[in-house]
Design a protein that fits this description.
Layout lengths: L4 E5 L3 E8 L2 E7 L2 H4 L8 H26 L7 E10 L10 E3 L6 E3 L5 E7 L28 E4 L10 E2 L9 E6 L3 E8 L10 E10 L2 E11 L5 E7 L2 E7 L2 E2 L22 E3 L16 E3 L4 E7 L3 E2 L1 E6 L9 E6 L10 E3 L4 E6 L2 E9 L5 E9 L4 E2 L6 E2 L1 E10 L9 E5 L2 E5 L6 E7 L9 E2 L10 E6 L2 E9 L3 E7 L2 E2 L5 E3 L8 E6 L3 E8 L37 E6 L8 E4 L5 E7 L2 E8 L11 H4 L8 E4 L4 E9 L13
């Protein structure tokens, strides 16, 4: 019941409006002499007080009577309540914003981290338009409930862990949203002279898993303050490296080195601050790592060194018409830090560097891409040369041998070639081939099959720069039984592409004699509602085939199974989603030896291509070997993982 609102009309008549649920009540308060003649002896102040008390008493009695006459009020509304917690400490989080993605629902948690939404009740029976999960039809949404809720608060990460899934389930009344606290890297940049440096740019790289392999990827940059302080916030738990960018000295007696004559400038030597890697490492590859747990703050101090910088010019003999990307690596090891630029008008790579040995790589990507490499050494003076010569990037033919036992798929693909639609046949309909850089510090784009030039055009990878690559084959039909180039087994070895040379064809054998693994996962907690596939279509557990993707509204499976090929085996990584009762089945599995791991949530940082990283799971899942046509049944134990770190709780 809301507080009454009392209005006066020349102190003679008062109007009171009250509301409870859907009942509205208006009372008119007569002058005190009409209701209680004896109160005429009271002062005007006491008359007013008496009128208020009498009116409130009458209103409360009337609302109580109305509530007694309408017992259905308590069933006219529904509620969703819950709590927002810290995923590390499990403590409640006060004043966190809880909202739905469409912003129809929003509120702040109280001092105990709890929240509640009151919803009007609607008819959600099958007769009202929704369909049952067993019907195989799209299930109608319940309009009074959000699909999901998310929680946010400064100092915590915005992540999928803050989502409550399957809120279309009317049986779900209480939810828990877990927020992961941010990690931070803070510190100061100083000079040996204790004089604060100019504001300098810093950058952090994080060790992240892509396609089963970890590599260093840039996360973000930060500018230090005038007193050298810096702060990297909103970092997830993980492994990081920190470095400073180059900074040329801004002494007013010096000027732009590119405008100076090649002889020594009479105003003096130009100085600068080369990049500094954490714990004074000579390059990015040997820099020390910073390990951050969720919610941890790591303090790091870096000391800059002021060194002479010298003019560098590397002429380009056969420069392309447009610009190129230039990378500079200290000591021949790939990584960020030093930089030079390309002067398109002079067809030269120019800039400033301190003493040292550097590898300069210049590239232009695309079908007509070119690459140039040159090594230079600076010893106390400017250099002009040696020259760099660009060579064309490599084209690699791809030959596909089909050993399918089933009939060809009658479907076709239409491709637009020079404004004309052409029906594409053969392996191009179902196959994609990509070269992924195998370097620990991944630079440069992935290279894939060129677009077809005519119907049934040959498969060719164009514009591959010199380097080492993993060959990735994705197919909507069958599986790659073997990938070879000469004597190289490209399923387990990288392909080395030489600069400007011809490459042996990539030979791919495709087969479809797949196997099947099914079974159950112990430890799965069934949800209150039978799940549906993402998008709303229902999927009964007995009808699951192939990629088993049980996903309720919001896309959450009961468990996630990873079939990981052993290092010396054939096979492809396969992920299986698990039904609410813990059962699963996967058809279309490539023959091979697999370790099966069942996790309670997706493992985006699982290094399944790294045998060393997988050793920690040797005792957590069985090894299953299957050949073509074989059906194997197994029983798996659920691996519980930390929300904040994504690692097994048994390993913490």
């Amino acid at each position: 019941m809301h507080s009454p609102v009392l209005g006066h009309n020349n102190s003679k008549v008062g109007a009171i409006r009250l509301k409870s649920s859907e009942h509205h009540l208006s009372l008119r308060v007569l002058p005190c002499r009409i209701l209680l003649p004896s109160c005429q002896r009271l002062s005007s102040r006491r008359k007013s007080q008496g009128a208020r008390i009498l009116a409130l008493s009458l209103a409360a009695a009337s609302l109580s009577a109305a509530a007694a006459q309408s017992p259905s009020d308590k069933t006219d509304t529904d509620t969703i309540q819950g709590i927002v917690t810290n995923s590390v400490t499990r403590e409640p989080i006060a004043r966190a914003l809880v909202s739905s993605p469409d912003n129809r629902f929003a509120t702040l948690t109280n001092s105990e981290g709890r929240f509640e939404f009151t919803l009007p009740k609607v008819d959600s029976t099958p007769g009202s338009g929704s369909t049952t999960p067993a019907s195989g039809q799209i299930q109608s949404a319940i309009p009074n409930r959000p699909y999901m809720l998310m929680a946010r608060k400064p100092g915590f990460l915005d992540a999928a862990n803050g989502l409550a899934q399957n809120l279309q389930n009317e049986a779900l009344k209480d939810v828990t949203l877990a927020l992961t606290p941010e990690s931070l890297i803070v510190g100061a940049v100083t000079l040996p002279t204790s004089e604060p440096p100019d504001s300098i740019m810093l950058q952090v790289y994080r060790r992240q898993v892509q396609d089963g392999r970890a590599r260093w990827l840039p996360v973000r940059g930060a500018q230090s303050t005038s007193d050298g302080q810096f702060r990297f916030a909103e970092l997830p738990a993980g492994t990081y490296k920190l470095l400073t960018h180059e900074l040329l000295d801004r002494d007013p007696i010096t000027t732009d080195p590119l405008s100076l004559p090649r002889s020594n400038d009479p105003r003096g030597q130009l100085f600068g601050y080369p990049p500094v890697y954490y714990q004074s490492a000579p390059d990015f590859g040997s820099a020390a790592t910073i390990q951050l747990a969720a919610g941890q703050t790591q303090t790091v101090n870096l000391s800059l060194v002021k060194l002479p910088y010298y003019r560098v010019k590397v002429p380009v003999i056969n420069a392309p018409d447009n610009g190129v990307a230039v990378s500079v690596y200290a000591h021949g090891r790939k990584g960020p830090g030093f930089s030079l630029g390309y002067n398109n008008s002079d067809h030269a790579i120019e800039g400033m560097l301190p003493d040292g040995t550097y590898t300069i790589e210049a590239s232009r990507f695309g079908p007509d891409g070119v690459t140039g490499l040159q090594t230079i050494t600076i010893k106390g003076s400017a250099i002009d040369g040696p020259s760099m010569t660009f060579v064309s990037n490599t084209s690699i033919p791809v030959n596909v041998k089909e050993e399918f036992t089933s009939a060809d798929n009658p479907g076709s693909m239409t491709w637009n070639i020079n404004g004309r639609s052409t029906v594409i046949k053969g392996p191009r309909r179902y196959l994609s081939v990509t070269l992924e850089p195998a370097d620990d510090f991944g630079v440069g784009p992935q290279v894939s099959l060129r677009d077809p030039r005519r119907a049934d055009d040959a498969l060719v990878i164009e514009g591959a720069p010199a380097g080492s690559y993993w060959v990735r084959v994705n197919s909507s039909r069958g599986y790659p039984a073997s990938i070879r180039s000469g004597n190289l087994d490209l399923l387990h070895q990288p392909l080395v592409v030489a600069a400007g040379g011809t490459a042996s064809p990539i030979e791919i054998t495709m087969r479809d004699d797949t196997a099947e693994i099914s079974g159950t996962v112990d430890g799965v907690t069934p949800p209150a509602q039978r799940p549906v596939i993402s998008g709303g279509a229902s999927l009964a557990s007995g009808d699951a085939r192939g990629w088993t993707s049980y996903a309720p509204f919001g896309g959450q499976a009961a468990a996630h199974i990873y079939c990981i090929p052993l290092a010396d085996s054939s096979g492809q990584l396969t992920e299986i989603w698990v039904s609410p009762d813990g059962s699963f089945v996967s058809q279309g599995l490539a023959p091979g030896a697999y370790r099966l791991l069942a996790f309670d949530r997706e493992q985006h940082d699982l290094e399944y291509r790294n045998p060393e990283a997988l050793r920690t799971y040797d005792s957590k899942g069985p090894v299953v070997r299957v050949v073509g046509g074989q059906k194997e049944r197994v029983q798996l134990q659920l691996i519980s993982t930390s929300i904040s770190a994504g690692v097994s709780e048994d390993d913490q």
